[in-house]
Target: Cupin domain-containing protein
Amino acid sequence: MIVKMKEEQLELEKSKAMIVVEIIEYVPDSVVIKTIIKKSTGNINAVSFDTGEKLEEKTSPFDKFIQIIDGKAEVIIDGVSKPLETGESIIIPAHAPNSFKANDRFKMISTIIKSGYEEVS
Model:
């Protein structure tokens, strides 16, 4: 299966209320990533996965906070499957191999904060 990944910069109007689950759509046979905030100190992305799609295993030097905002996701951290449903969250530890799998379609918010690591030994 070929995964189509579509990344979009999204400039949201500041100081205006939004419903995050509505700013990103499902696209057949695709993973869609919309950047909400991107700074040198971290970023926030809205991501949608169509059924059957996955992101291959990777690692990050920073902790990543994941919140499922629609559907059901399978997050694999260090080879251990963590099923999550709408409203559930998980922190993927820095340097932990991780991947995402959509047995059902789902949407999530991914937040990475890059500052503060210099304080941890």
Observations:
- The chain has a mean pLDDT of 89.
- The two ends are 42 Å apart (CA to CA).
- The chain is about 0% helix and 55% strand.
